[in-house]
Every structure is written in structure tokens, then in C-alpha cells.
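Each record in this resource describes a single protein on a pair of labelled lines. An example record follows, reproduced without changes.
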Amino acid sequence: MEQAKREVTERLEHAFAFLVRALEAINRKRVYPLERAHYLLLLQLREGPASVSSLAASLALDDSTVTRQIAAMQRLGLVRKLVNPTDGRSALIEPTPRGAAGAEAMQAARLERIEALFAAWPDADRAQLATLLGRLNRQLAATLAALDDKPCGQDGNG
């Protein structure tokens, strides 16, 4: 790797390490109306009722993980199960009014905090960051999909 490219890669590695650390620290200090996992599932359900498998796939999780989260969300009154009209052996998950309201409240709080965080940034910089983060998320999804196709420990990356 040429020196300039290596220096940029090192800067990215450092930036990611501290970004993740800062986000974790901020998350521990914030009070939100929902757990993050519940919020993400409820966001997916805005498109309409979905199966556990489709929710798991959309969030790159195991079905068993989503099943446990859905059970907890049912106990909290955030979601309910419906009979799947195309396969009576399975269920579809949909948000309850309480779950939808909780997701709306959480999104409003998050948007307000993001707006405050970037208030001093020019609009063009904010837009560029949003574009680059979208690109990064697509690349991460593709990388994860490729890893899912390989045996554990066979990714060839560090």
C-alpha cells in the first residue's frame, strides 16, 4: 500500500474506533422512549406487517434474536402478531398504536439531537456526510452479505 493511502487508512481506522466509542458513550447517557433494537424493528415495520425472517434479514440478525426481541416487544405492548394470510403456520408482526407512537417519539428525539449536533455545519457538508454515510452503509451491508456466504474465519480480512 502506498504511503499516502496507508496514512488515510490509518486515519479512517482511528476515526472509526473513536466514533464507535463516542456513540456508545453518548447512548449510555441518553434516555430514549425505546430500546434501540425495538426502535429499529419498529422502523422496519413502518412498511407494513412483516415476518420474523424478513425483519431479521433486513437488520442482518438471526431469526432467534428477532424472535426474542419481538417477544419482549409484545410484552411491552409495542407489537402484535397476525396470522400470515399466505402461510397460516407463520405470523406477521405489526406495530401497535403504542409501538408506532414510541417509534415516532424516539425518531423525533433523535432528529432533534442530530440537528443540534450538526447545527454549525454548512448544509452542503451535512448533505455530503449523509451521502457518504449512505454509501458506507451499503458497503457494510455488501461486506456482511459476503461474510455470510463464507465459513466463519474465512473472510481474509482483519
Notes: The chain has a mean pLDDT of 91. The longest strand covers residues 79-83. The radius of gyration is 19 Å.
